[in-house]
Amino acid sequence: MLSLTRKTDYALVALSYLTGRYAESAEPVSAKQIAQTFGLPLPLLMNILKELVRAKVLASTRGVNGGYELATEPGRISLLEIVTAMEGPVRLSQCADGLPIVGQGCNLSDDCPIRGPIRSLHRRINRFLEEVTLKDLWEDRIESNNTGTYKTNTNDSCACSSTHPTAELTELAGVTINQGA
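The structure corresponding to this sequence follows.
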């Protein structure tokens, strides 16, 4: 099962919030404010935000009026950048991207009947993640809020509607996105 960790889930929640603030031309926001707004654990969120700064998805400002904000416009930040910053490179299997893995091999690699289809699926998922931006997630959130199908609470931080990009990924790749721990 393809699964995104809770860390990526929290990153997407925080980035969605910061996308809304970007749309309003608002000032940077503190990690504490984001954590309180969504009931997220502050120490974990602070680490996530630091990783997003290192990946140049976010910019941070120190001081009394400091905090976090998007490093660039939401339409230029892809879901692939975010997932890679949180999870590392997306790989469906060891051989999916054709790159060797040091110290690991596959006895079936020369005669594997699914190597081609797995690589094809891998490329399609990566292409999809590259095409979906924070702007897309934000627009889907607004559409879903109008219908009441998207919600955020402290027990289940992502209740996705059928119009959410992960639903499109499920249709595209035939995989289930599970919000894992």
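Residues 3-179 form a domain with the Arc Repressor Mutant, subunit A fold (CATH 1.10.10.10).
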